[in-house]
Amino acid sequence: MGCQDQLLVSKVCEIYYEISKLETLKPSEHVDMLFTQLVLTCMSPSSIDVAKLCKRVQEIRSKLIRLCGQAEGLLEAHFSTILGSFENPIDHLNIFPYYSNYLKLSHLEFNILMRHCAKVPTRVAFLGSGPLPLTSIVLASYHLTATTFHNYDIDPSANSMASRLVSSDPDLSGRMRFHTTDVMNVTSALKDYEVVFLAALVGMDKEAKVRVIDHLAKHMAPGAILMLRSAHGARAFLYPVVDPCDLRGFEVLSVFHPVDEVVNSVVIARKYPMPVNSSVLVDHQGLGPMILPAKCSDQIQCFNPCFNPLHQINMIEELAVEEQLS
Predict the structure, then answer these.
(1) What are the b/e assignments for 268-294, b being 16+ CB within 10 Å?
(2) Residue-range domain boundaries for the chain
(3) How does DSSP classify residue 292?
(4) Burial letters for 136-160: b for 16+ Cβ neighbours within 10 Å, e otherwise?
(5) Are strands 250-258 and 265-271 parallel, antiparallel or unpaired?
(6) From CA 230, how far away is CA 227, in angstroms rounded?
(7) Is 291 in contact with 279 (CB distance < 8 Å)?
(8) CB of 147 closer than 8 Å to CB of 140
(9) Pairwise CA distance, residues 252 & 206, whole Å
(10) Fold designation for 99-319
(11) What residues have CB less than 8 Å from 33, skipping those under 6 apart?
(12) How far, in Å, are 26, 103, 171, 324 from residue 165 at the CA level?
C-alpha cells in the first residue's frame, strides 16, 4: 500500500474514532460535518483493496459501514418527515442535500438497465427502499414513467413516511406500492418482477449480502435482471462490496465504478434461465458454452460516456464475464 493510501486509511480511522464517540447519529451540524469529512476522504482517488487491509482496519471498516447505515437512515427519516409536511412533497425533493447524486445515480442505472433489457420493464421491485425512496421516485418520474414500483422495507415507519411522500401525486401514488416485510420472507412474489433493485445497505456485511443474493437467485424469475449497489476502492469504507463471484445463480453483465461524486458502484446481473452446473454455463443467447473466468473480473475498461449532457458520468466499467465466444 502506497504512502497516499496509508494516509487515507489513517484519516478514515481517525474520523471513525470521532464518530464512534457521538451520543447520537441524528442530523446535526457536528454529525453532518464528520460524515461529510468521511465521504470526501473516501472519494479521493485510491487503489486500496479493502480485502487486503489488516484485521484491525477490517474491523473498523465493518463498524464504520454500520454507523454510516444508521446515520443514513436517520438522515433520510429526518428529511422525509420535513418533506411530508408539504402539500406536494415531490415538488420539494431538492431540499435533500444529496438529491443531485440520486438524479445522477438513477440516470446511470437506467442507462445501464436499458443496455441489457429488450424492453422497458412493467414491474420493478426495490428491496430496502427506506423512508425516502428517491431511486424509485426518480426512476418512476423521469425514466420508467409507465412502470409499477413495488418497494419493500422491513421498517413499517419507513414505509409509512415513504408512502406519504407520493400520496398527493396522482401518477406516482397509482404506480408505487409499499410492502413491510423482511427481504428474506419475499419468495413467490419475486417471480412477478422483470427487474429487482437491491439497496446497498440490505446485507451490511459480506455474509449477510451473500445470503440475500442466494435467496434472490432461488426465487427470482429466470432471465430477470438484478441490479445491486456496491463500492470500490476507498468508498468501500462506506458501503459493503459485492464481488461478481458473490452472484451465484446469476450471469454478471457489467460492473460500473463511478469516479465522480456518485459514491456507489452499480452491478447488473441476469438470473440464469436454467440451473447451472459447475463453471461451464450456456450463454443466454444459446450460442454455446461460456467459461466463467477464474478470477472475479477479467477486464477493466475506462471510459467517459455522456449519457446526459447536463450530468456527465465519469466511471470505470469492469466487464466481469463478457468474454468473446470462440
Answers:
(1) bbbbbeeebeeeebeebeeeeebebbe
(2) 3-95, 99-319
(3) P
(4) bbbbbbebbeebbbbbbbbbeebbe
(5) antiparallel
(6) 10
(7) yes
(8) yes
(9) 18
(10) Rossmann fold (3.40.50)
(11) none
(12) 21, 17, 12, 46
Distance CA 92, CA 86 (A): 8
Quick one: cell of 166? 407520493
Residue the block writes with cell 412533497? 89
- Compute the C-alpha angle 165/69/246, nearest 5°: 110
- The percent of the chain in helix, strand and coil, each rounded to the nearest 5, is 45, 20, 35
Indicate the DSSP class of residue 134.
H
pLDDT tens track, the chain, 326 positions: 678 889 999 999 999 999 999 999 999 999 999 999 999 999 988 888 998 999 999 999 999 999 999 999 999 999 999 999 999 999 999 999 999 999 999 999 999 999 999 899 999 999 999 999 999 999 999 999 999 999 999 999 999 999 999 999 999 999 999 999 999 999 999 999 999 999 998 998 889 999 999 999 999 999 999 999 999 999 999 999 999 999 999 999 999 998 878 889 999 999 998 655 434 343 333 333 333 333 343 333 333 333 333 333 444 555 433 333 23
Q: Cell numbers at residue 15, please? A: 474520523
b/e burial code for range 256-266 (CB count within 10 A of at least 16 → b): bbbbeebbbbb
Q: Residue 8: phi, psi to the nearest 5?
A: -65, -45
Kindly give the interhelix angle for 29-42 and 3-20, rounded to the nearest 10 degrees: 160
